[in-house]
Amino acid sequence: MEKKINEEEKEATLEDIVKNDYQGATIVELNIPTKKIGVASDHRGYNLKQKLTKYLIKKGYTVIDYGCDDKNSHDYPEFGFKLGEAIRDGKVEKGIAICGSGIGISIACNKVKGVRCAKVDNIKEAKYTRLDNDANAIALSGDMPVYRAKDILDVFLKTNFSNEERHQRRIDMLNNYD
To answer: Which of 47, 98, 151, 170 has the greatest count of CB atoms below 10 A from its CB?
Structure first.
């Protein structure tokens, strides 16, 4: 059972706080959702992954689950690698990775060339990892409240890369590093 949230703890809606600084319109008005999403977790992220999968399907996304499939102990690198490879190979457009802290699975995803996975804790980080870094995956803590994770996903999936030259130059530097 989820804890009742008072107004101070409630995450703001997209319309409340997410504005596209470059266009002056809300992110929701400007963008079409990415349709094919990969999800992966270890055992500590399993419950949140299940809830977010249902949420994404209700919103019209196709969700491909790269594991794990239960609450038994699992090693996060295995699932981070699978998700990263699916992004690299074009099987999914974006990825959502979840482990206890979100840190380990983000490191695993980032071992796959071409993946830019950001460990995200709030909607501001979700917005800027897309606008500035063109991240193609995010990592979340399995302990994150579901309402916050949903808000983060909405922002991440509906925010486009800014295409500013300085940001593209930095991404190219990352992509070209061996």
So the answer is: 98
Dihedral (Cα; 3, 125, 117, 159), 10-degree rounding: 100
Whole domain around residue 145: which residue ranges? 34-176
From the candidates 68, 99, 109, 117, which is the catalytic residue? 99
Q: What is the pLDDT of residues 125-150, one digit of tens each?
A: 999 999 999 999 999 999 999 999 99
Q: How many other β-carbons are positioned within 10 Å of the β-carbon of residue 23?
A: 12
pTM (predicted TM-score): 0.79
The alpha carbon dihedral of 64, 88, 106, 149 has a sign of negative
As for how many domains the chain has, the answer is 1
Active-site residue flag, 99: yes
